Amino acid sequence: MSVHRTALERISLLAIDVAALAAGVRLAYAAYARTLIGGAQRVPPYSAFTTLIAVHVVVLVVVFFFQQLYHQPRGVSRLDLAGRLFRGVSIGLVIAFAVASFVSPSLSGLEALRFFLVYTWLASLLTVGVARMLHRGIWSGLRRIGVGRLRVLVVGAGPAGRDLVARIHRRPWLGYELVGLLDDTPGRTRVRGVPVVGRTAELGILVDRLSVDEVLIALPGATRSELVALVSQCGREGTTIKILPDVFHLMTTEVQVSDLDGLPLLAIRDVALRGWRRSLKRTLDITLSGLALVFLSPIILLLALLVKFESRGPAFYVQERMGLDMRPFPIIKLRSMRPDAEASSGAVWARRGDPRVTRLGAFMRRTNLDELPQLVNVLLGHMSLVGPRPERPQFVAEFRRHIPRYAERHRERGGITGWAQVNGLRGNTSIEERTKYDLFYIENWSILFDLKILFRTVINSFRDPNAY
Q1: Of the chain's two ends, which shows fewer C-beta atoms within 10 Å, N or C?
Q2: Residue 317, strand partner residues
């Protein structure tokens, strides 16, 4: 049944794309005609573009198909979807105009056709983007009420399995219906409200009995032979199997498959920020931090005055942190705690309901406003807008001793925000998990990745449960 619902979702997406692309051409023609009215050139009739419309729609649908825009995994972010649509429309439009000009030579003779090309590109991005968001919203709502749901069985009720269950519970719009977990721990009957329905050896039987659509194997420490044995049990046709890997040592590398006389080889290469990439990132940092300081300086000044009025002591707080290549630097923050916060305790983590935090400080920490002065650190080159969150020397020394590869976080500048932070790993959360996310960011950096993190930081600023 879920297979049919998935097919219906894709067919409806295809239909809405066709309508949106046709509407985009119509909208582009209206803008194109308005440009030519009053000029020396004659506005060609809309019928002159009939061939272009047909070719445009067909070519872009084919390009979307090969870009896997009709086979997107559930939960793909809006920003990632926008990036794929941008590439798909841009590539498809060039191909469509080339094909249309070949099929209908009269099109190439239309004057000011270059304007129509630009208008069609912009209009298609707008109409397809809006249509896709509408389609996504409708199907998210339908999944919430049970339409198009996938019956999911999780293998493993350890930390990885519990985290997986928690993430599914937080995202009901994905349409995952947890039918149970498999676990070999004696006496364990429920995990986060989900029943443990059997042992891992019963996977094949339970997949059939419970009509499971998708199996999520959350056993990061499992050996290859154990995983092969589990996968081989899932003989039910139409059941998808996904494995949560042990990514601590391999998630941070870009792996390429090559071969040596037919023997497959995995080529692991370092794609960390080097050369022009680092210059490009620094240019982005200077540009955005400079603009942000211009527009946000009145807010920083107002908050500084409020800090002074609320409690005695300096408005700004300067603290030593460890940056690029383990070099210390003074990080600047708006003071959110009492001036004597660490007089008796020394360096300790802030915790939820920390009595050292002032009332205004609690608000600033929840909304990340206390971090705004760090834009100065970015401008001076101490930090980047995006990167691993820099820690104090005392904590860095401790983490280096106990967490493998922790020191590799310092291959790049620390950031005001980072991939770990936008995934909820801030405050008093697992340092091991943060390290995984930080290393993944370092090895997979791109301008689009930075922009995605900045966008998510703004969206999450007022709703992060670990901001305290």
Answers
A1: N
A2: 333
